[in-house]
Amino acid sequence: MAEAAVDNEVWNEPAGEAVPKRKISSRTKLTGKEKAAIFILSLADEDVKKILDGMQEDEVRELTRTIARIGSTPQDVVRAVRQEFLDRFELQQFDVRGGMNKVKDMISKALGKEKARQFLKELQQGPKNTPWEILNAMEPTLVATFLSNEHPQSIALILSQLQVEQASYVVDYLISDVQQEVILRMAKLGSLPPGALEDIEESLLTELEALGATRGGYAKEGGGGVKKVAELLNMMSRDLSDKLLAYLDEEDNPLAEEVRKEMFLFEDLLLMDDKSFQTLLREVNNDELLSALKGTDDRLKEKFFQNMSERAAEMLREDLEMMGPVKVADVESAQQSILKAARRLEAEGAIVIMGKGTDDVVL
């Protein structure tokens, strides 16, 4: 739609209901909000209801305000807006990868975090043979309660054997002082000699018998150390990981710096070369990208824009402009999802993230 001067006029309304309306013509340059309003107005009532039901209150308020200002719209403008919507839809990247991680994402959005964990338990089959399998399947709140009377060193050893995501949830439910001690001790854990965890395993199995555990197998050697703590902090909320890093700084600054070098934060995406960045973008869906970029600094936004087609970048800018407030937790969740994709691609050798860890890159 070519740019042109905008015609504005006040249309006749019943007394007390005068609304300044914008007269739309084929020469009018529409804003993103106006395009959304015109698209909504072109839909059947039942479809409009479904869309509005999925929007936040402030988004509905902004949309209805825009609709109230729009007068009669020519059919060629309506067709152009609907065509642009279809173009956006076709340009969107869809992640159709299956697996348990996808199941977790889907049911977490549909059921909420707590119900999703319970649902995932029902998907798991077969008996749990080791205490680590049992603890990984338990609610994190129960694991935290179960470990509450243990010494921080024992908790550090136990958590070092759990899946990173589960361990991060458990740490979140520990009291603040214990969190700090456990993270510090985990960071200092080195490789353990064979059999070092056997006594702990036997003791845990005895205490977990009520849950139907069966004996068999031993924990892997090691499991702690700087890398494990970095992975753990990456999974936590930014607020909690910052607090625990600050504590590590006070207790052992060189150790804290080692942990930082192993950590991978959303801002570190700036370190990626353009080819790697474009590979990552193909793995990210539009909704996650929008939430992740909400509130990020301009440098990182530009990094995304520069690695997209001009049209896709323009659409993303418009979507960000139209987007209402987003919960911090939702922003962090979206960023973590993108970081998980980046870590997976790096492990597969598909991308290179320069400047993190100890592996140097020769260009």
TrEMBL record:
Which residues are in the Flagellar motor switch protein FliG middle domain? 140-213
Top-rank taxon of the source lineage equals: Bacteria
Q: Where in the cell is it found?
A: Bacterial flagellum basal body; Cell membrane
Flagellar motor switch protein FliG N-terminal domain span: 29-132
- Limits of the Flagellar motor switch protein FliG C-terminal domain: 248-353
Q: Which InterPro entries match?
A: Flg_Motor_Flig, Flg_Motor_Flig_C, FliG_a-hlx, FliG_M, FliG_N
Q: Do the record's keywords include Membrane?
A: yes
What is the protein's membrane topology class?
Peripheral membrane protein
Protein name, as recorded: Flagellar motor switch protein FliG
Q: Which gene encodes it?
A: fliG
